[in-house]
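Subject: sequence -> structure tokens, single chain

Hey, anyone have a minute? Need the predicted structure for the following. Not urgent.
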Amino acid sequence: MKTIELDARDLLSAVRLVSLAIERRNTIPILGQMRFTASKGFVKLAGTNLDQIIETTVAGIGAGGFDLMLPPKIVERFLAGSSGTVSIAVSGGKKPELTLSNGNAEMRVEVESLMPVEDWPDQLSNLKPAQDYTLPESEIHRALALCRPCISTEETRYYLNGAFIHSINGKLAVVATDGHRLTLVKTEIEADLPPDQDNHSQCGFILPNPAVDTLSHVTRKGGNASVRMRTFASSWVQFTHPTATITTKYIDGKFPDYNKVIPKAEPKLGATLKPADVARFSNPTRYYDGIKCVVIDPKSNTASQKQSHEGATITAKLSGETMGETPFGFNAKYLKDFTKILGDITLKAENKGAPFIISNGDESVVAVQMPMRV
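Reply:
Had a minute. Here:
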């Protein structure tokens, strides 16, 4: 009998984490499973969809000594609401069984009914490390959180479906845009990323949206751990946190030259907004739905919005200062997103049709928002 005991809640968290890389529907059955490797004193769990691999470990007591493929949903269902210790055992004999026990509950699975471990895709063994970087957990979490709302979901522009991690003067920077808005976060992390081997004009890589979400989930705001970022001599990158390792393909494409859309001209229009100034306005159903555009009138120091179906107009006095006299319009959702992540913001532009710079006083963050027709 091969056994190991684990904390039930720790195991449940680990199963949910690796499940982020396991797609519910796929044409390759083995990709719907998680790999469960029990060694002396710990269990390693792994999940993959061929584009992303998530690995994590859970400390335990026992010799372990088994390596199996398990369906994560069944294990998660068994552990739901559990506490205390879960005992995992694999019996010997002609028909070995896997048994999970927690309190008065027990789940038995015939080992022969499980998919063979040999079918698990071995993607990591062929990767050749190129360069390692050390990232403070709080810094990378902050950068991804600020850029996340600007990542595009438009499939035709796949190269915008992620965050571009690159170097500016030897320091790590992260930028994302969906064509309507942009956020650039400059850090003090020393990281002189080399040019991409397939695209020598681009220094850095585009981290896909699923990996951005996974890395944001693993890291913590204000966390003091270190994250090792390892690039490979192919289109892969790996992030190792004390709680998990995320290995992912990055997007094969060239990120646009975002410097071209950052305004350089002297601003003549502007307004300062607080989160409460935009909270009452409705989000648009379409980007160019002018009826639901939030119109900021610097002359009267107000923001207003016509309600498309109700025939009403909401007008609110702004709590901050304004600049200029020409009204300009914005997508309400985008304003809410920026005030949510940046707090009080100041919008400035050369004219009502030009890109607006959005800032909160932090010089390490540069945000740009395209206006809407008023």
